[in-house]
Amino acid sequence: MASQSQFYHQTRIPSTYARWWKHFYENKLAFIALVIFVSMCLVAIFANFIAPYDPTLSFTDAIHKPPSWYDAGDTQFLLGTDYIGRDIFSRLVFGARLSLSLAGAVVLLSASAGIFLGVVSAFANSWIDALIMRVMDFILALPSLLLAVVIVAVIGRGLPNAIYAVAIVLIPHFVLATRTAIKHEILKEYVTAMRLDGASKTRLFYHCILPNILPPIIIQLTLAFSTAILEIASLGFLGLGAQAPHPEWGTILSESHNDILFASWTVTLPGLAIFFTLLSINLVGDGLRDAMDLEKNK
Amino acid sequence: MINNNIYYVAFLCASSILSGCHNQQSSTVRDNVLVYCSEASPQSFNPQLVTSGTTFDASSRQIYNRLVEFSPGTSLITESLATRWDISADGKEYIFYLRKGVEFQTTDFFEPKRPFNADDVLFSFQRQWKSNHPFHNTSTLGFPYFESMALGKLIKDIVKLDDYRVKFVLNNPDAPFLATLAMDFASILSEEYAQQLILKNDLAAMDSQPVGTGPFQLTRYQADAFIRYKAHPKYWKGKEQLGGLVFAITPDPSLRFARLIAGECDLMAKPLPIHLKATADYPEFKTLSEPGSNISYLAMNTNKKPFDDPKVRRAINFAINKKLLIKVVYNGNAEMAKNPIPPNIWSYKHSTPEIPFALDKAKELLDSAGYPDGFELELWAAPVQRSYNPNAIKMAELIQQDLGKINIRTKIVSYEFGTFLTKVKQGQHHAALLGWIGDNGDPDNFFSSLLSCAATSSGGNAAFWCNTEFDELITQAGRTSIIKKRTKLYQDAQQIFSQSLPWVPIAHSKQFIIAHKRINNFHLAPTDGIYFSGVSLTPLNESFVSTEKKAN
Amino acid sequence: MLYLALRQVLNLILSFFVLTIFTFSLAKAFPDGVSFIVDYVPVDIYSGDSLLHDSQLNSSQINNFRLNESEQNENIFISYFHYLSQILTGHFGYSTVRGTSVFSEFFIYFPATLELSFGAIIFALGLGLPLGIFAAQNKNKWQDKLIVSTSLAGSSIPIFWWAMLLVLFFSLLLGITPVASRIGFEYDIIPVTGFMLIDTLLSKQPYSIDAFFSAIHHLILPAIVLGTIPLTAITRTTRSSMIRVLSEDYIRSAKTRGISVAQVIWKYALRNAMIPIITVLSLQISVLIAGSLLTETIFSWPGAGKWLLEAVNRRDFPVIHGGILAIASVIILSHLALDFASMLVDPKWRQR
To answer: Minimal CB count within 10 Å: which of A30, B25, B224, B374?
Structure first.
């Protein structure tokens, strides 16, 4: 893996990130998934410009209009309308914004709390470590949706509470990943070497350990992101997450579930949105894992 | 290996085919059992404790009888447990002659040693009336009908003249009294069973393990799943043709419809407008309809700001687009409401001005009431389907949209139906979407239960609106039996209502039910009640066994 | 061996401790705050009147079990121990909606979830093992790639949507599977064990065999829905495990000795590949419980998941508390059981 300059025989070794990117780029499936995901993010950011209508606006004379490719459909409503005449395309677009930003908030919260706890747990004495790990093991053993449902039952339903509930549920994943990675790194010889050289704890942490535990944490971030989207959609479907008339995909599915026989597009389309989003994030995550693993094996 | 896979696939196919085959043979069981997809779990098996039609369908209408009852399909009074009655000249004394040879149901938990007599009548009413009665406090649900109709004040005494004669002495004449005794809460319970429960110290079983004289008796109940009944072998009208009855409790309307067309149910409660349209594709089903004796309304809790101000209430009336709601929520199958009673009840005031949908007028009123920046509104709606409102949540969302245009920020609050009713009864709501189905064709049934001062304490008056003039008018109207006089009084009452507007009256809905053609002799009552007495089934393997459906 | 067993038991006790601390804080955090489980009379949480529906309560118990005012100001540790003694004797309180004992309600609803989960596991194993083996044998060929990609797609599909699609296609459009519930309504089956498949056979009704097949018929689609995610996990694990095992030397020597491929796989390879599969099964327990929350809602399956969700909708806090305590205990116990199973299967473990 060397590139050669014109005049001198020089070997330029690309940086770690460049190498990861090259591995990732070579994985066609993962790359396509990344493109899809990035375009979804763009759609979410520019939702106001992309969506033709306000997602809560109901056109009461166009209820249950099928998508435009049906005879009864209308290009005015590209993907049809729902049970009170709201344009589905607009709802899905704003739903993308909602799902992605909610998941982002969840991941931000749980990653910060989780990484912090993981670092504390790895460096603290064995009592605190054991205590934290016990609690984390317990939360991990429980099904995430069950725990989220119970938390929402206590603190009440609604968007912000759903975010807190899912964030709490995802914290242990970060704690575990961080702690394992740190414990792994500390045992390595170069760290011992640096300690012998007299490096302070802070320097040790920021310059040695932190950069090298990034791979598992990044992978955990993608996993958590995909789990967060699914959990929020599940809570929305159960009526415990985003409430009507928020266009969250799970909430949309709970409303359209009633009319599945007569307006199947109100069920298939939002579900496809969730499916493709999750699929692309999972593929990106897999691709990242492969790219970073390949490096390790070399 | 491929071999293993084939075995697996073959096994899966075989078991599904086998199970499919057996479905056909089960039709012999179904020939005797009617499966009804109902819309919610009953709150209790004692009709004295509730006002909900769902509970009545599951209890009073199948398990119990009353002294007098409505002739099927009408609001005419006929004899039932009372064979005849004498009314004194001053209208204050009623003597009922009770039917002889009526047997109570024998169940797993009770075997009657004596037939029905006057003791049972006394027990059924005194339980609701006397606060020191041992069975008065066995449930937190209370006796909403008995209390909101102020029967405790109306009845002076109930006297047992002998085993088969009971005398009701009233404090003042009451025109609707006979109709009142035909209502579900006046069902007759077994006093002998009550004695047995006192000995066992298990008073609550009166309401959860019912014993009545009616056509069907309860065999098993699994909450939120099903209720099973079997025909009462010694029913005094003769044992029913229908051997058994199953209520398949299905709150989700689309699941109800799916069950109906899949053949899992024979009868479906409360179909949505979209289901009525779709039934045309399924020739083995028929739609039954009945003009509704009901009203759907938005009650504004006058105990909470800003609904204590009649200007604000009037503003909300202007801000609700009833035409749109009827079109979208009822699919056109309803009439716009302006009075608290429906037009098919006598004394309906046709001249009441209709309040049009005018957002500018609403804004004007709000400004003059001191709310130029609008206010926050909590709109309560239950996620169930009632015959007066197919989809309260949908209605709430549409109202939310319109109110938003005049700067009223609406938040939709919802609870499971039973919990919703309890909380509304306690006055926790701000504004709530509710409704009422008339029980006996008498206007008093609407006015007293929903708008009287007595109903503010029993919880039926969700607006907690107590207007003494209005209350006086309806009380007087209840006392006389001269229709002309009553009409005038009720019309004056409606005048007061339309000036004060504690509600936004929204619509009167038509009632529908979808039934399999194999059900014979089933009628929808004007009170939207489901009565299975007299119903029979044509065996399944005749003419309409194959569920041929055209795929849409 | 004994040391291992002891360690597992210690783990179990510690896990239960953490669980009870969690549920205790949950109980304290509920809006009506007070220690409602301790000798609780079912009361209407608003009016305070007693809600006597449970026919097993008699009057002496009522007089003794008043919600004690003084308990509210109790030391938190004493409160916790009091709580623990109630929990361990099975007093989970009473439902504020129906007044029935939470503990007994759990045992009414849980067998349904268990039956559904068994169906899902049978589906997942029954389809997953052969698919995984098949993929491993045809590694990197188009069959393998197809199975891997379908597996990946399957793990990204939201369960509730998948259920809706299957119901739309198979139940509503084709009509070959029922729409909901555990059994046709015309069959009156007395619940003995709570498992419909067993109860129908035990039933003395003339239609008991018909009822049995009806129960199987109703189990098919929900089991497929619930079992989809475990299916993908088992397929993936079986495939990777089998690939690893098939590349081992002893497999090659067995093949050269002339043992048939089928025998090689079943007698030698699969046994050794089982360990990671059992580990994966252990992880799937949580997936099954979470999935049952959604599956039971869509198929109106009267299991513990639907029971819990309805309690959440009705704000029935004793049921929410009791439900999660019971379900979490079951999960912890089943993890233990599976750990033991994997220890028995893996000879390396036994030596340690």
So the answer is: B25
pTM for the structure as a whole? 0.79
Q: What is the pLDDT of residues C210-259, one digit of tens each?
A: 899 999 999 999 999 999 999 999 999 888 888 888 788 777 777 788 77
Asked if C284 and C125 count as a contact pair (C-beta separation under 8 A), the reply is no
Q: What does the mean pLDDT of chain B come to?
A: 87
Asked if B14 is an interface residue toward chain C (Cβ–Cβ < 8 A), one would say no
Question: Which residue intervals of B108-176 are DSSP H helices?
Answer: 118-129, 144-148, 151-154
* Dist CA C83 CA C22 (whole Å): 12
Distance from CA of C301 to the nearest CA of B (A): 9
| The predicted structure's pLDDT at residue B45 | 92
DSSP secondary structure letter of residue A80 = -
pLDDT tens digits for range B408-423: 999 999 887 878 888 8
Contact A138 C15 (CB under 8 A): yes
Q: Predicted confidence band at B89 (pLDDT cuts at 50, 70, 90)?
A: confident
C-chain residues near B136 (CB < 8 A): none
Answer for the pair A87, A53: CB distance below 8 angstroms, yes or no. Answer: yes
**CB-CB neighbors (< 8 A) of A237 in chain B:** none
Instruction: Say which residue the tokens 């479907």 belong to.
Output: A237
Mean local confidence (pLDDT), A43-48: 89
| pLDDT class of B363 with cuts at 50, 70, 90 | very high
- The pLDDT of residue B417 is 80
In one-letter notation, the amino acid at residue C322 is: G
**High-pLDDT (> 70) share of chain B, %:** 92
Contact A73, A67 (CB under 8 A): yes
- Predicted ipTM > 0.95: no
* Shortest alpha-carbon distance between residue B272 and chain C (Å): 17
Question: Chains with 3 or more CB pairs closer than 8 angstroms to B?
Answer: A, C
The answer to whether residues B77 and B69 touch, using CB atoms and an 8 Å cutoff, is yes
Pair C127, B8: CB distance under 8 Å: yes
Q: What is the pLDDT of residue B6?
A: 56
CB-neighbour burial class of residue C159 (10 A; exposed 0-12, middle 13-18, buried 19+): buried
Q: b/e per residue, A229-240, with b = 16+ CB within 10 A?
A: bbbbbbbbbbbb
Element (H, E) at C84: helix C76-88
Smallest Cα–Cα separation from A89: which of A77, A72, A101, A75? A77
For B11, name the nearest residue in chain C, comparing CA atoms only: C126
With CB atoms and an 8 Å threshold, state whether B254 touches A257: yes
A51 min Cα distance to partner chain C (Å) = 24
Asked if C333 reaches chain A (Cβ–Cβ under 8 Å), the answer is no
Query: Which CATH entry fits the domain spanning A33-296: 3.40.50.720, 2.40.30.20, 1.10.600.10, 1.10.3720.10?
Result: 1.10.3720.10
Nearest CA in chain C to B4: C130
Q: Is residue C230 within 8 Å of residue C128, measured between CB atoms?
A: yes
| Boundaries of every domain in chain A | 33-296
Taking CB atoms and an 8 Å cutoff, what residues of chain A touch B278? 261-262
Q: How far is A99 from chain B (nearest CA, A)?
A: 21
Give the side-chain half-sphere CA count within 13 A for B332. Answer: 5
Cβ-based neighbour number of residue B513 at 10 Å: 22
Strands B216-222 and B244-249: unpaired
* pLDDT tens digits for range C9-67: 888 888 888 898 888 888 777 765 433 443 344 443 333 334 444 333 433 333 333 33
Structure tokens at C58: 């008699």
SS3 for B296-360 is EEEEECCCCCCCCCHHHHHHHHHCCCHHHHHHHHCCCCEEECCCCCCCCCCCCCCCCCCCCCCHH
Spell out which residues of chain B touch residue A63, defining contact as CB-CB under 8 Å: 328
